[in-house]
TrEMBL record:
It comes from Cyclocybe aegerita. PANTHER family: DISAGGREGATASE RELATED REPEAT PROTEIN, PTHR40124. InterPro entries: Polysacc_lyase_14. Residues 75-294 form the Polysaccharide lyase domain. It holds the Pfam family Polysacc_lyase_14. This is Polysaccharide lyase 14 domain-containing protein.
Length: 300
């Protein structure tokens, strides 16, 4: 449980993992209707499949962490990245993209929540080629419909949305790709996250680059979990945190995630693709990844 829900205290939650049992967590199926999936990118599919078995694990030293105490999921959403595919608007689209708010009871509670955790497990295909990088599912929020599309270099009305997605770079280097309101305090706090953070011209921030790596996901399930704490309006006390297999790898505080009381946590931006926008970001061959055990809890 610690990998998917790496906090001890919470009010309520949901999970699609059949192995995660807790009196405050509702178990639901990995199905669009039950998870409040909406705004699905029409060109891309997220088929529900039986994922392939994990690769045999290499012998580990006593200090190594298995990182996956739960049995492998029996069902998962499959993402296909065809050869030559790049971002969802590219000539050859790949991956998939949609938003989800969780089961109805959870989505209702989320409307007034100030702090929550969202998580999932993922596995990528053996022989994966990283190329220049790509995006993975994350979390989003903001003011009503303005919370959507807080990506792709958006500059307008940035005070009314936030979007946080993991990203892989060459050789499996990981980071958190962040779109937050464009304030001086946010810039300073994000750029201070070790080991390296970068402000990308006209795009988001690469936060904590090389704080972790995704190579462990090749042929094996890993857990990715996010914690978001909304700031009190007028204060810079927002927080974000990322865990990989229960280990905290990126954390930032002193943030502004919203500029008015209309700013809410909305749920997960379940999007993945190679890119970047240029062709040298494209997948060099057909590749696949699988996503399962989607979960969320409300802390307060």
């Amino acid at each position: 449980m610690d990998q998917l829900i790496p906090v001890k205290d919470f009010i309520s939650g949901f999970t699609t993992s059949q192995y995660l049992c807790h009196e405050k967590i509702e178990q639901v199926a990995l199905e669009d209707k039950q998870l409040g999936v909406h705004k699905v990118w029409s060109k891309l599919k997220h088929k529900l499949v039986q994922p392939p078995p994990e690769l045999p694990k290499a012998e580990q030293s006593p200090c190594d962490d298995d990182g996956s105490p739960l049995p492998a999921p029996k069902h998962a959403w499959e993402a296909l990245y065809p050869e030559g595919s790049i971002n969802p608007s590219g000539e050859i689209p790949g991956g998939f993209g949609f938003y989800l708010s969780g089961p109805p009871a959870f989505a209702k509670c989320l409307e007034s929540a100030s702090e929550a955790v969202f998580s999932y497990r993922m596995m990528i295909q053996e022989g994966w080629e990283w190329v220049k990088g790509g995006k993975l599912p994350g979390v989003f929020g903001g003011n009503g419909d303005l919370s959507y599309g807080c990506t792709g270099g958006r500059q307008e009305q940035r005070c009314q949305c936030f979007n946080l997605r993991p990203m892989w770079r060459p050789n499996s280097v990981g980071e958190l790709y962040a779109y937050l309101p464009l304030t001086t305090e946010n810039r300073d706090q994000l750029l201070a996250v070790p080991p390296r953070s970068i402000e990308n011209s006209d795009y988001g921030f690469s936060v904590g680059r090389d704080a972790f790596r995704f190579d462990r996901a090749v042929g094996h399930w890993i857990a990715v979990a996010f914690r978001i704490r909304l700031n009190d309006v007028g204060c810079t006390n927002g927080e974000l945190q990322l865990w990989i297999d229960g280990q905290s790898v990126i954390k930032a505080d002193g943030l502004t995630l919203r500029c008015s009381e209309d700013g809410k946590m909305k749920g997960m931006h379940f999007q993945t693709f190679f890119g970047g926008h240029e062709k040298d970001w494209a997948s060099p061959k057909d590749q696949k990844a699988w996503f399962a055990d989607v979960s969320g809890v409300i802390i307060q």
